[in-house]
Please model this.
Amino acid sequence: MESYLELFINELEDYIRQLNKQLLILESNNRNTQSIIEVFRIFHTIKGMAQTMGFDGISEVSHSIEDLLGEAKEKGEVRPNLVDFLFIAADLLSRSAVALKNKEELPPVRDILDLKTKLKKGETLEYYKEQVSTNGIGEIRIKLDKLDTLFNLSNELTITRSRLVKISQDIRNTDLQVIVDTASRLISSLHADIMRLRMLPLATVFEFFPRWFRDEAKRQGKDVILEIAGGEIEVDRSIIDILKEPLMHLIRNALDHGIEVSAEQDGMGKVVLKAVREKERIRISVIDNGKGIDLEKIRHKAVKHGLLTGTEAQHLSEEELFRLLTHPTFTTKDDVTAISGRGIGLDIVNSTAIKLGGRLLISSQFEQGSCFTLELPLNLAIIRAMIFKLDGQRFALPLSYIQETFYAHEDMFQTVYHRELFPLRNGILPLVRLSDRLGCVGKRGRKSVIVVQTQAKRRGFVIDEIIDEGEIVVKKLDPLLSAPFYSGCSIYADGSPILILDPRGFG
Amino acid sequence: MRVLVVDDAMFMRRMLSDILEKGGHLVCGEAATGKEAVERYKEFKPDLVTMDIIMPDMSGIEAVKEIKKLDSEAKILMVSAMGQQALVLEAVQAGALDYVVKPFQPSRVLESIERIIEK
Model:
């Protein structure tokens, strides 16, 4: 039986997702016969599976629900309290799936069976006719680590291809060139196909939200609807895995603070979760029609916390002021009420976006609503980076961290309390000499400075020379080798390895 | 025997396939809905079909009727969860030869198949 357990859990989780989806449909239209049938079928199938595995609690609950749904054939409608009950049952199944995964004891089912008895005494319930949506089996499940191995091999192949192309260009043999071109094309399409295997629709994360949002809104007694669009857009699994938390932050912020006033005034609050694909990037927005962000309050807070002087605060652009919301200072509890709670976890959302090679964009109209957009790459394996030289060695720095670059002579650096600074336009840019930090010898004289923004910190990385900019394939570092300064490594077109810097590691 | 396994749960299909293969049969195809079952039947012409009842798209009973229309000699074994006795009866009337109730013992499934062969 052990060998079937994993398959059982996977399939149970699939059914729970389908169940929540159908229950939400039934909640808005309790006469949707297709959904009633589908919910019946889901419980029926879970029952059969659970019986076979010997999970008596799960099968007993599923059986009694089947019974409950089957009893009311005539009506073709479910009562709202039955839908609520089914939501509770769906939660029990979710908890069971988690317990099975963690090899823990299954949650008790007595309460839910008692509830069912009560429900049954008071009510006559409804149901059933045969006919539902299609669900083909032109698919197989693959263990993720197998897919990852394939993916890593294909990355190696892509790197080898760049070297092959370069060598073949140097040798200038027509026969060689033809075969290298063909191999190169095949490797590209193989790589693209494997990348596609790793892609999952955003719906995988999005479908969690309607149910969660319903519970949150109900708990707060708010009449708010959540609209979702763009769930069909596919992104790399590694991004899917990380997206849920930041989106939860953004949606909760919108619900908690954005629409509060407007919901009371205008009757209907609305939160929209929307994804749009733009070339190799996706933009996922959380938009509310609430009260918007008060810029004056941000200015006030920033000055109060010593982040800005009064004059600076008056001169900041709208965008720069919104950006302040992602500063950790703005995320403390006291600030929540002061700036309409917009700060909660925004620093976390922002740093997640940057970690994924993207960014968080904020816009808002006071009294009209706000829009928070996560702009992310479609996959993480290939990033755009700047390649630079230091002490003869090459390094890469992801472009997502870079604001600008410039040349400067060392004579222009100023030292204040052993810290080097550079007067950049109207401000001061703290400098980090990468040669010192990475233990190499930088050349003297004219240097290049890369202005790097990480969370609230803006610093100038002093390097020898920028040599290239382009796409690189990111490979993980062996955990034994990993240091906070590096996020991974890559192979340059000439075959030499390059380390990818993680600016956040420089404190 | 070449067997077509029909069930909406991948878990059940896997388990049935394992049992059948251990019993010396060959699983020539799988289907997750009634409609698919009919399509696969045309495609594979199996010696035997194991058929679930509650499935999306087209129920197992409808599928039995459709398959019987295509091939009056088709051998079908119903494999359904408890609580569907009335439907099992309907399936037998439609032409299914025997039934096994989930959760099943592997030996029970294989015995039913033996009986069907003898018929």
The beta strands of chain B are 2-6, 26-31, 48-51, 76-81, 98-102. The two ends of chain B are 14 Å apart (CA to CA). Helices of chain B lie at 10-22, 34-44, 60-70, 85-94, 106-118.
